[in-house]
Amino acid sequence: MRENHIEKTVSEYAKARGVLSLKFESPGNRGIPDRLFIYRNGLILFAEFKKLDTTTTRLQDYMLAQLQERGCNTCVIQGIQEGIDITNENLSESLRLSEEVRQLHT
Asked: What is the total count of domains within the chain?
């Protein structure tokens, strides 16, 4: 299965659940993750898509590490089901954060 098919399917799944899914492009900067997923309450995930049995490049690893060092959430998604699972995990986390914020204001 091609990476772009995995990315498109996972992106559509996330969008259908209210997640803002943006193709991440930065001209002149190679190795950046493929997509940004922005959940409610500001939860942001930088996602790199790979087909099964392929790995990230050294440059992609470096960029993911740079983002992680700055406190960003990152992942490498290999396959549609993994992307759906990660989306659902982040949706749960976003709901948990919403409840915490709501409790702070009551």
From this structure: 1
